[in-house]
Specification:
Blueprint: H1 11-35, H2 39-56
Helix pairs in contact: 1-2
Amino acid sequence: MLRSTVAPFSDKFMMYCISLCCSFAIGGNSLETASKLRHDLAAKTTVFMKDIFKYTH
């Protein structure tokens, strides 16, 4: 088993990937909320988007 002390990816690259994935999640939830006809689901997805934003920040 190889034991490396050097990270395979840089911290900036990993932060970029996390930011990109969270941006896609917020954008997807926004499109989903806009296309829903039920208002109760829109309220729940806005809570999910708030949690994703807090995680991203």
